[in-house]
Amino acid sequence: MSADLDLLKTPGPTITALTAPFWQAAAEGRLLIQSCEACGKAVFYPRPICPHCWSDHLAWCEASGRGRLKSFSVVHKPGHPGWLPAAPYVVGLVELDEGPTMLSFIVADEAACAVGQPLVLAPTRIGGRVLPAFKPLAAAGSITPLNHTGNTPMSTETKDGWIGVIKGRPQVGAFAERSRRTRLEDIEAFTEMTGDRNPLHYDKALAEASVFGKLIVQGGVTSGILNALVAEDLPGPGTVFLEVGWKFVKAVGVDEMITGRVEIKEVRQDKPICKIETSVRNEAGDICLTGTATVFTVPLAKA
Amino acid sequence: MSAARSRGAIAGIGELKPVRRTEGRTTLEMIAEVSRLAVLDAGLEPGHIDGLLVGPQVGETPQHVPATVAEYLGLKPDMANVVDLGGASGAGMVWRAAAAIEAGMCEAVLCVLANTREEVPARSPNRNPIREFDVPFGASGANISYALLMQAHMAEHGSKPEDFAAVAAWARANAQLNPDAIFFGKPAGVDDVLASPMVASPLHLLEIVMPVAGGEAVVVVSAKRARQLAKPAVHLLGAGEKVTHRAVSQAPSLTSGPLKPAIVRAFVQSGTSADQMSLLSLYDCYTIMVAATIEDAGLCAPGQFGRWVRDHDLGHAGDAPLNPHGGQLGFGQPDLAGGMTHVVEAVRQLRGDATGRQIANAKLALVTGNGATMSEATALVLGADQ
């Protein structure tokens, strides 16, 4: 394992509102799990109800960070190409002292791993984020560890380009979605704006006889939901597109519910620029637009 | 045969010869071809099929799969559903079909699974716990999960790499008698398995199924109806099912799985036991899965599968025939249809139709299905017609 783990292009977590405290704590080098106030059992991963007794009284608590290696594997052929530069690397099942088991990255080579051995939390920067990795308790040192004040060693060396951005620096893996129903008025408004009077948008009989089989909205109406997403939701106010690469793979008709989605793929530290994955789906879940974009978020927060 | 009650019968089977690539083809085409084979085999007309069980079709038909398949085949079923139990889907379909017939909902159920395979396989984006809490740590895909199960078995029971390799070698040996198997003409011994590249320790390449495209289908009817049809009926005598988790980190045990209670239920329902089986048609996505199933079925004590494999002859003429079609390790794994190969082979053997690899006087078969990370389990006991 010689690659710099932090530079890997690995898939990040798909964070939800419920799980956000776990990942926030992880970014600070801490391990948060849930504890059931009704039955007293520890719960991992985070849920709205206890999987043991179905109580909805779950409280966050900081785990001891101690555990035991239940099993491990040295991965030579990763299942995701983003991990290739790191192979071989070790993943393990960590039985936490509190009871639950989690899968984690083990900061050790094969010779240092044995089933049953005690482990300790070793927060590690992997793929641009700090993950709650573990290392053998006896092992001295680890790879790119995080100091426990929560500040990454990197951040003192590189200027933070996200100061002043209203919603702050987004996390890789964060995503947002937004839905709306297309209307005939969208077509007219877009024509008003651009002069695009393509008969496919107005001549019902002609459009129905075409490959689309229906009256369709302009591509700009479809992609427009992504403008709203980046400017309103993620990364949020102040965001503009620098570059887009979009494929319009399926036409959108009038009176269709469309859902746009953006997911943060890469975040620059020194500038408020990120690369995002974008898509628009129709009600049936078919992809209508897919591609990537680079966005810049103007710092608009008042000092 | 035992006095076990028939809960329904398999009257027809269909199987496509597995291939590595199907560029330009669709899952629906494969489903149509294999369904036709199964209905012809049963001696039924398409109009007789009034029940339909299908699997999920990632990347092609995300929703409304039964309606899409029914329309494509020109069927108008009185019962239709998706069975989504990974490698246990095939076995899971068989008892569901029989239960629907017993409930009076329909009379002849087509259970069909097929898949295409292109250079870039379709993936469905997950947004669930395994995606959020396993994938970011470097654990994508099934190989790593089964490697973790295998490592735990070795640590708990002292099993050796050669014990697991022997399972793969038997699968390859049996595949030499199945011209349709992807590894027909390509035997591999224990040394070959151990010399193959390490994918995720302790799992070697040749201990992992080869993904292929293919299709498998069966037609389930009542026992009475089956006896009036073309081929000898193969009866469902007992079934069991259990689902315990999805991600390997959440498995209640790493060395014994949900097949254990599922097999017990299938034996209790059928009034049979492991030592009565003429055939073990055991789901084998990885060598560790066969090892765990041999132990969970009670064929040997926990941890003793290595010795059990050494002490028995797993060929069709041996004392413990196990996957005479080569298993998925020898035949190839046509995605979800892979699990159904174990049902189809059991039907061939119990009919006395397994040309070139027929088990003498085959009466009873244990069929297992397994999905996800030793998470989803279905067991069937099938019996030959009296």
Task: Describe what you observe in this structure.
The complex is a heterodimer of chains A (303) and B (386). Chain A is 15% helix and 32% strand. Chain A has helices at 20-27, 153-157, 184-194, 204-209, 219-233; strands spanning 32-36, 42-43, 58-62, 66-75, 89-96, 101-106, 118-121, 124-126, 129-131, 134-136, 175-181, 239-248, 257-267, 273-281, 287-297. A five-stranded antiparallel beta sheet of chain A has the order 6-5-4-7-10, with no helix packed on it. Chain A starts with 19 loop residues before the first helix and ends in a 6-residue tail after the last strand. Chain B is of the alpha/beta class and 386 residues long. Chain B has a single domain (9-121, 209-384), classed as 3-Layer(aba) Sandwich (Peroxisomal Thiolase, Chain A, domain 1), CATH 3.40.47.10. Helices cover 35% and strands 17% of the residues of chain B. In chain B, helix 6 crosses helix 10. The A-B interface holds A 10-16, 19, 45, 70-80, 83, 86, 89, 91-93, 101-105, 110, 114-116, 126-127, 129, 131, 133, 173, 284-285 and B 62-63, 126-127, 129, 131-141, 143-144, 147-149, 151-152, 155-156, 197-203, 247-250, 254.
Supply the key terms.
A: 303 residues, alpha+beta, Thiol Ester Dehydrase, Chain A, 2 domains, five-stranded antiparallel β-sheet, 5 helices, elongated, B: 386 residues, Peroxisomal Thiolase, Chain A, domain 1, nine-stranded mixed β-sheet, two-stranded antiparallel ribbon
CATH superfamily of the largest domain in chain A: Hotdog Thioesterase
Low-confidence stretches of chain B: none
Number of domains of chain A: 2
The largest β sheet of chain B comes out as:
9 strands, mixed
Shape of chain B: globular
In whole angstroms, how far apart are the ends of chain A?
44 Å
